[in-house]
Amino acid sequence: ASVLTWLAWNWRQAFFVAGLWPLLVLLFSWRLKPMGLGLREEILASERPDFTGDGDDSGGVTSGTTAESRIHALYVSIFISLYMFAEISLGTRLVQYLRREFDYSEVVAPVYLALFFLGLWLGRLMLTFVNTGRWSNQAIMVASGGTAFVMYLLGLVTHQPWMLVTCGFLLGPFYPVALNYVSERFPNSTARALAYCAGSGSLLVVVMHFSLGLLTEQFGLHRALYIGPFGLLMMFVLFALEKPLFRRAP
User: Fold this and answer.
1) Does residue 17 have a pLDDT over 70?
2) How many other C-beta atoms can be found within 10 angstroms of the C-beta atom of residue 8?
3) In angstroms, rounded to a whole number, what is the distance separating the alpha carbons of residues 217 and 151?
4) Which is higher by pLDDT, 120 or 246?
5) Using one digit for the tens of pLDDT, what is the confidence trace for 198-218?
6) Res 185: pLDDT
7) In angstroms, rounded to a whole number, what is the distance separating the alpha carbons of residues 14 and 1?
8) Nearest to 161 by CA among 211, 216, 110
9) Which of 37, 89, 62 is nearest to 213 (CA)?
10) 219: number of Cβ within 10 Å
11) Res 49 pLDDT > 60
């Protein structure tokens, strides 16, 4: 939509054209067949055949393992959701930041935001064409989050908008791989673990918006955006503590 307005279309026409794309997705999704339960279980079993998600180290099930599994799933969902601090802080504040700090026009600034989301899409699309079989889900998450953390921080410190835009491409692979990580870690309770991810993600988005608003009022938008790298840093801290805190963490 921002690119079309840059080409002298009005906003109404631009949003109409942009809105056609999700409509096409909806229409073509009707042709998709749901994955059968047996096929889904076969795929999950092939990924981690030695892990049930609820057993102890001896392979048995104790009275406390179910509760521990739920706490573990909630813990994983929280540190994955902290990734949203980076993505949504840029996705919702980048235009405002560019207009305030760099005096970009109301046409040019949204183009940068469009490039950010284009990079986000390309980063996820890359997983389709790049063979990641040699890398574990954890390795991809660390590489994606780590490079995005460095680029986001450098972009704020050096006042380079292109670095912030590049974060979209670097952050792109993280979330789909993280969801696969959840399915891998909890093959017997994937639906519950993914529900935790959705719930904690929604809650942390509210926390992020509230905190970002307060920090902007107190310190200005530039300093407030450091909440993005902070979220990624906290994610890495919780990620590193997963194995010591939970017996069956990889």
Assistant:
1) yes
2) 7
3) 25
4) 120
5) 888 888 889 999 999 999 999
6) 85
7) 5
8) 110
9) 89
10) 11
11) no
Distances (CA, A) of 125 to 20, 111, 178, 205: 20, 20, 15, 24
Q: How many CB atoms lie within 10 A of CB 138?
A: 15
d(CA 75, CA 188): 17
pLDDT of residue 155: 95
Query: What amino acid is encoded at 67 in this protein?
Result: A
In this structure, is the dihedral angle defined by the CA atoms of residues 100, 106, 107 and 110, taken in order, positive or negative? positive
Cα(95)–Cα(9) distance, rounded to whole angstroms? 19
Q: Are 119 and 166 in contact (CB under 8 A)?
A: yes
Nearest CA-CA partner of 54 in 43, 41, 67, 42: 67
Residue 220 is encoded by which pair of tokens?
């200005």
Q: Which amino acid is at 172?
A: G
> What one-character DSSP code corresponds to residue 33?
P
Q: Which residues of 38-75 are buried (b: 16+ CB within 10 A; e: fewer)?
A: eeeeeebeeeeeebbbbbeeeeeeeeebeebbbebbeb
d(CA 210, CA 53): 35
In one-letter notation, the amino acid at residue 211 is S
d(CA 91, CA 60): 45
User: d(Cα 124, Cα 105) in Å, to the nearest integer?
Assistant: 29
Residue 12 neighbours by CB distance under 10 Å: 7
Cβ atoms within 10 Å, residue 144: 22
| Backbone dihedral region for residue 32 (phi beyond 0: left; psi -120 to 50: alpha; all else: beta) | beta
Token readout for 175 is 């979330």
